[in-house]
Write a structure and sequence with these properties.
With 243 residues, the protein is α/β, with parallel strands linked by helices. It has two domains: 14-91; 99-239, Rossmann fold (3-Layer(aba) Sandwich), CATH 3.40.50.280. It is 49% helix and 9% strand. It has helices spanning 14-24, 27-39, 44-60, 69-91, 112-123, 137-147, 162-179, 207-220, and strands spanning 99-103, 127-132, 151-155, 182-186, 202-203. Strands 2-1-3-4-5 form a five-stranded parallel beta sheet, sandwiched between helices. Helix 1 crosses helix 3. The longest helix has 23 residues, at 69-91. The protein binds cobalamin. Residues 48-49, 52-53, 56-57, 59-61, 70, 73-74, 77, 109-113, 116-117, 153, 155, 157-158, 184-188, 204, 206-207, 209-210 line the site of cobalamin.
């Protein structure tokens, strides 16, 4: 097993290759790898839950014992964002409905997780509105009023103030339940919220879980059996493969 900081890894695993490209700052190669995984049949959820999550996890081990760790994390995040934005252009659905909306709570600076949620939902046919990191709950509620989403996600990677986030989630959850809108929580810190079991919300560990919950929601509001979603088929769109 190679050490964490080894610049070049010889194995063929996409996660290892992506990790090596990110450590070396090879943006073009990383973008190319992620795009080729998608074009060869990988779903957004598989790519995010697999190689991206795995490579970023390993990068996160570097900061504690390598002086370059923090700059590597920033640079790797930017490279992954470039790749995910490229995929978003390919999968964006033409319709404005159904709307899914979300972001990360106040004090949470993490960019990639919410962006990956939005892109995964867009690939599944949702019109996804990503408010991004560090979003005040008041801003999220204002956006809910404006967009009337059917689904709201909260991606929680870091909790600056436990009380602020727990109260914010409780209020958001209550307001959404009045509207009949589902709230789906996830992210590496979501499990540490004690409010979870009392709120009208669901939690997923991965983007595969997110799609399961989102499809259940669509099934519940779309009873026609001839519809793709109603028959339980995944609705991820691969724009280039439809030609
Ligand atoms: C990049 C990074 C940073 C960057 C973020 C840049 C940016 N603006 O985005 C910067 C440099 C700012 C940073 C800072 C810090 N970081 Co940092 N960081 C990371 C790193 C390497 C990657 C995070 C990431 O993007 N992962 C990729 C995403 C895709 O993975 P994910 O978050 O797990 O998301 C998956 C699931 O959770 C799920 N999911 C996510 N959202 C949702 C939503 C829904 C609805 C659902 C269903 C599912 C879902 O699906 C995703 C795909 O599978 C992690 C390592 C790690 N293990 O995550 C450390 C890590 C999170 N950081 C860590 C630390 C310690 C810090 C700092 C304290 C360092 C410091 N001393 O300053 C600060 C704290 C910042 C803060 N205010 O919280 C620790 C946290 C340890 C802990 N116990 O909490 C980690 C784990 C590194 C480590 N191994 O020590 N970090």
């Amino acid at each position: 097993m190679p050490a964490c900081g080894d610049p070049v890894l010889s194995t063929d695993s996409p996660a290892e290759r992506l990790f090596a490209h990110l450590v070396e700052g090879k943006a073009r190669e990383a973008r190319g790898l992620i795009l080729s995984l998608y074009l060869s049949g990988g779903s957004l959820a598989e790519i995010a839950d697999g190689p991206i999550r795995s490579a970023m996890n390993r990068l996160g081990e570097l900061w504690s014992h390598e002086p370059d760790g923090v700059f590597l994390e920033h640079r790797a995040t930017d490279i992954c964002i470039q790749a995910v934005e490229q995929l978003r252009l390919l999968v964006e659905p033409p319709t404005e409905d159904p709307v899914a909306l979300g972001g990360a709570p106040p004090g949470d600076p993490y960019l990639l997780p919410s962006m990956l949620v939005a892109t995964t939902l867009a690939a599944d046919g949702w019109h996804a509105v990503n408010l991004g990191p560090d979003t005040p709950f008041s801003a999220m509620l204002a956006a809910v009023e404006r967009h009337a989403p059917r689904l709201v996600w909260l991606s929680i990677s870091s909790i600056r103030n436990q009380k602020e986030v727990e109260e914010g989630v409780a209020e958001l959850s209550a307001r959404l339940s009045e509207r009949g809108t589902a709230l789906i929580l996830g992210g590496r810190a979501a499990g540490s919220l004690s409010i979870m079991k009392h709120t009208y919300s669901q939690r997923g560990e991965s983007l595969a879980d997110l799609l399961t919950l989102a499809n259940e929601l669509r099934l519940a509001s779309c009873p026609q059996p001839e519809d793709g979603a109603a028959s339980g088929k995944p609705r991820e769109r691969h724009a280039t493969r439809q030609r």
